[in-house]
Amino acid sequence: MTTTAPRKVCVVVTARPSYSRIKTALHAIDAHPELTLQLVVAGSALLERYGTAVHYIEADGFSIAARVFNVLEGENLTAQAKTTGLGIMELSSVFANLQPDVVVTVADRFETMATAIAASYMNIPLVHIQGGEVTGNIDEKVRHAITKLADRHLVASEDARQRVIRLGEVPETVVNTGCPSIDLAAAVRASPALDFDLFARYGGVGERLDLSGGYLVVMQHPVTTEYADARRHIELTLAAVASLNLPTLWFWPNVDAGSDGTSKGIRVYRERYRLPHFHFFKNMEGSDFLRVLANARCLVGNSSVGIRECAYLGVPVVNIGTRQDGRQRGPNVRDVPYDTEAIVAAIQQQVAHGLFPPSNVYGGGAAGAMIAAELARMGLSFSKRITY
Amino acid sequence: MTTTAPRKVCVVVTARPSYSRIKTALHAIDAHPELTLQLVVAGSALLERYGTAVHYIEADGFSIAARVFNVLEGENLTAQAKTTGLGIMELSSVFANLQPDVVVTVADRFETMATAIAASYMNIPLVHIQGGEVTGNIDEKVRHAITKLADRHLVASEDARQRVIRLGEVPETVVNTGCPSIDLAAAVRASPALDFDLFARYGGVGERLDLSGGYLVVMQHPVTTEYADARRHIELTLAAVASLNLPTLWFWPNVDAGSDGTSKGIRVYRERYRLPHFHFFKNMEGSDFLRVLANARCLVGNSSVGIRECAYLGVPVVNIGTRQDGRQRGPNVRDVPYDTEAIVAAIQQQVAHGLFPPSNVYGGGAAGAMIAAELARMGLSFSKRITY
Amino acid sequence: MTTTAPRKVCVVVTARPSYSRIKTALHAIDAHPELTLQLVVAGSALLERYGTAVHYIEADGFSIAARVFNVLEGENLTAQAKTTGLGIMELSSVFANLQPDVVVTVADRFETMATAIAASYMNIPLVHIQGGEVTGNIDEKVRHAITKLADRHLVASEDARQRVIRLGEVPETVVNTGCPSIDLAAAVRASPALDFDLFARYGGVGERLDLSGGYLVVMQHPVTTEYADARRHIELTLAAVASLNLPTLWFWPNVDAGSDGTSKGIRVYRERYRLPHFHFFKNMEGSDFLRVLANARCLVGNSSVGIRECAYLGVPVVNIGTRQDGRQRGPNVRDVPYDTEAIVAAIQQQVAHGLFPPSNVYGGGAAGAMIAAELARMGLSFSKRITY
Amino acid sequence: MTTTAPRKVCVVVTARPSYSRIKTALHAIDAHPELTLQLVVAGSALLERYGTAVHYIEADGFSIAARVFNVLEGENLTAQAKTTGLGIMELSSVFANLQPDVVVTVADRFETMATAIAASYMNIPLVHIQGGEVTGNIDEKVRHAITKLADRHLVASEDARQRVIRLGEVPETVVNTGCPSIDLAAAVRASPALDFDLFARYGGVGERLDLSGGYLVVMQHPVTTEYADARRHIELTLAAVASLNLPTLWFWPNVDAGSDGTSKGIRVYRERYRLPHFHFFKNMEGSDFLRVLANARCLVGNSSVGIRECAYLGVPVVNIGTRQDGRQRGPNVRDVPYDTEAIVAAIQQQVAHGLFPPSNVYGGGAAGAMIAAELARMGLSFSKRITY
Q1: What is the mean pLDDT of residues B289-298?
Q2: C-alpha–C-alpha distance, residues D299 and D319, integer Å
Q3: pTM score
Q4: Which residue of A has its CA nearest to D86?
Q5: Which residue does chain D place closest to A68, by CA atoms?
Q6: Hey, what domains does chain D have and what are their CATH numbers?
Q7: Residue among C82, C260, C271 minimizing CB distance to A69
Q8: Interface of A with D (CB under 8 A)
Q9: Keyword annotations for this protein (chains A, B, C, D) (predicted)?
Q10: Which of C36-40, C75-79, D101-105, D172-176 has the lowest mean pLDDT?
Q11: ipTM of the shown complex
Q12: Across chain A, what does the average pLDDT equal?
């Protein structure tokens, strides 16, 4: 009988939301006897302006194999391209040092392409988590391009599995694990009480609000292909929510071309109008955030959290604009265009409706363990051929 | 009646073979009244070690809008990744300066990914020429990933067109123009005489050979996924061809990880053995090269020229190893593994057979004009959705 | 008689304060018949977080030859090094495109080294403005290193001229033009009335203040070699100034490793304490800022404005810490350590003293014209030898 | 009594000649109980085209802490600038990983600036070896600029020590250790017999030569500021040496803008003329090379080996052109311009003269040990002030 060294699995996390989305998978990899986790933290996950996700990662007990600073500052799309180019240059050095057996890239943010290219060009087997979905901006191109670079696909829904196979991937290399973010939501659904003081724990900007009568949560990101409109779009939402006079917990957008438009829109609006029922947060630890969602009357904006976790939790969602176009939805989502009146009406209807029955469309709560098992079992090939 | 400015079409050429392959399209774009050509020359196309393709480009009458030096030197795969990262950084500056209406990227060499990412991340409509084919190495990943980043697809065969559509691209965005390299071959087929002294015109290394009794042409590139074997593979071919005692025109490989293995193999072999019937060339102007091919008894190696131009010209080909796996073939190709005896036998059979009837599988000679027409007519969208 | 084309003079501006400092030279170059200005805007001068100096530059009537985004985001010194490396890569492309006859770099910020290296490595004559001074941090290394890379030195004081010559530069290549920032101050000294509403014009954060009874101006930057202390240092100043209860106009620091410490210190302090007599500005057009200074009771902090423009204007200055160590001073400056009590005492003494007699130690108001004349007259050599 | 951890001394070697020059210092650092060597190999020292110095480094028993590929390929000065920019980006990551207490940079090749900037910007004490000398091209700017960035200076001659102090460095930080290359020459001088078969050991190109009647050694590099003339210069030397009909051992130039001109000049000349008494080598292990020099009738070209090691060995040198201008010489050097006749005459005179008496101008053979001792003893400051 021979014993082999554990597989070195290098996971690259480039942003706060990506971390939340795969946290249970990271724990499962870390705990798996046949796997060694090499966690690389890069991009906006290191930056204070975007909530320094790296602090949460360390607080969760992970040790960090390498930090990669590659965010080129600038309020334009060129900066996104250069951030990606820089990411390739830096990550290829990191991979050369760490010598991983497998590299894992998560979802479809623009800079994840850097992970995919560095790994595939260096002949390291590449695993893509959460491919096969459909949305409405540059992510759409990035996601499917990474599918074509990846050797193994761990997807979050049956719909996504079918789509990856149609893209010409060998069916045996495509596995539906569900989404690890649902693993976290499962714990929260089991015990959803909002049993901590979020103002004390997270500070933020604005007055302390009385949440006992219910509250809204808002989270709206800029849409890459609608870059120039980011500021106008956020102002429409600001006007809608401000008019409702409900206690509102507003979360800042993450880094993206146009996030300066979005951020600026929020900042200017806040300085111009008194918003005593608004409180702004930069970020929140994942399970705290889920607890906040689970108790919300409605989530407003365009976050994928509304599509995934809220489906499982049954929380009503008003989804604004094109960012989540094409993603499978549970019954909890009401879609509206960029239009203040439509947003107001939809929020009122969702608040009136209250909680929806839970949906398992994005998995049943064991995705992290399934991902780790698959990483231990999969073949380590980095060569593939389209199936047709 | 309104007159509009011509569309600015930015074509990025990163290597000598890519240039040959789209030269007639470049002329057609340059001549089209509704198009302005912005020709960017990058990568190995600028380097002396790889034949300074840029000299031929200028000699052909093109003016060059920008030169991009992005080849990072190093005998490993990391250098390919970094060359691509650097290419993104440089090309994004070039696109910001040139403000093209459309960017065109050609085929599937690893560094063409830089063009695709820079353009798509900057919301510039991206046209991919010669997607949809199938081969056996990293090109396979790169080619289909670029398809998923591109907005319009001008493919070289019906087979390729069907494959791009199956990849989820909107059928109206996929057009079979045939391959522009066949346009050049059409002129040569019409008048194939080898009416110039190639030793005087191109120098090269080795004795002047008597070609009047027929000759072989050899062109063998390293295969990315077989990087470590590059030297052994070239030695098998060297041994096979050396044993045949036929006048042999050998062309150096282009830049790739492993080309140092290939180059070194050739260099060492040449210093160890007397090879009086070999002559080595670094490169040759495209139509001269086609004329050399058209009069060859057989092309040996793994160049795509054997699959495309030689199909149209009917020249016998011995295709070695995996590099052209999965590409449609005409009847002129005989495939062999990396094996000296098999190579020898196949060459002997092909030489004995002589010229094959021509095949139009990669187009009929008007691809350049069709590409220009399509660039003038196409919609300028940079947002798309998978069809399923 | 022959006419020659005007010399192409490429000036690279990388930050707001550098622009203010050479604005009159830029106008003089632009207006000179034998010179063509190629203005490149780079680094933090393009970024909203640092006041988007590029908007002022365009409002002043300059056209911009190239924009270079090279600020790598990250709260550490590695980011400064990488920003400089990236600057070299980008600027070398810009110089290759613009083909300047001369490149001009200003002062001693870390990223100006990128301009100096790109130009000198490309054999373009390099002119350094404001070398030869002495300060107390990384600027000290950068400034003298650039002197050794530069071919011509246009310095701001006699003291600086002597020092550059002692560094082994040929005396004929070193010219004391005075500092162009004094050119602007000359106009303000002639007519110093604060005749505009700065709250209306610049917004900023905080209450509208009554300035009629006098006010303080504060401007404190982090010191590179004291990176880890940036936050503590700014808190000492905040405490000192807050205790004085004088109307205070506070200007944000520019980008530097540690500026996040400085910025955060300010932000947190502001959220914790009520500071009704503080108003925060991000930036201000140069001559407006000089007017604000000219009417201030005292400038507090570590800005070089206190050493230069305030000497000429006679404005009392409390200079804190090591950042301006070794720079020649007029009689208007009182130096204090990082110590709240010492800062408070010095401000009180300076406020009590009132305006000082003007000093010409940094020039008499015609530096811009002298710089342009020197650029037109100088030899275009890029090769030099140390004088000893 | 406390024991402290050994100091981590990170030495960056970027080229074959730099390695030879500090090899004894590396051994002494490695052996010193209070020091830990972190050896970083970068630039052309990793590349096959330039002799893969890294193989010799490993064969000498050193373990390599990091490899940095940063050579951007291209036949122009822009590539030198970009190689340096890339070097900063890569080395700053390396330093962040290795966390050295001290960084050591060697001499004055253009890319050593990358080491100097990365270290000084990251507040790591920087030691410069072999500053303070004088030469005639871009090295002159680079060398003195690095002096101004460095915190400690270990120079090779008294002349150099005086010059660094005149540059404003604190005298206590400047130590004349002599040149470590002389340490190697000391062993060779003690036992100079050419007791190995260099053709068998190093291969190379050309016939096996009979060296028993004496031979010439040639080593000529391009001069950066005379970039365009590189090919013409090498042809003058080729013509001169070819006319002498003496057995000639010719060494290829190292990487530099223009080395392609130099290399091409050699290659073309070699293909055009029969040179039966020439043998070309790419590189040679240091002490073998010194043994070859020690037995040569004359060294021809512009290598610094002629100035340093040959002074100590007493070998006659014909030094061509400007590259070594301003360096202290022993009596063994005869300087000539770029002129075939002058080169021929000088070689004939030097061959006729024979061996010169040894000179200790560049040290007496213990430089390596002195450098290690100084690295263990020096203060670890990274902040300095010019002395005047």
Answers
A1: 96
A2: 8
A3: 0.83
A4: A89
A5: D93
A6: 7-178+365-377 (3.40.50.2000), 187-353 (3.40.50.2000)
A7: C82
A8: 66, 89-90, 93, 96-97
A9: Glycosidase, Hydrolase
A10: C75-79
A11: 0.83
A12: 92
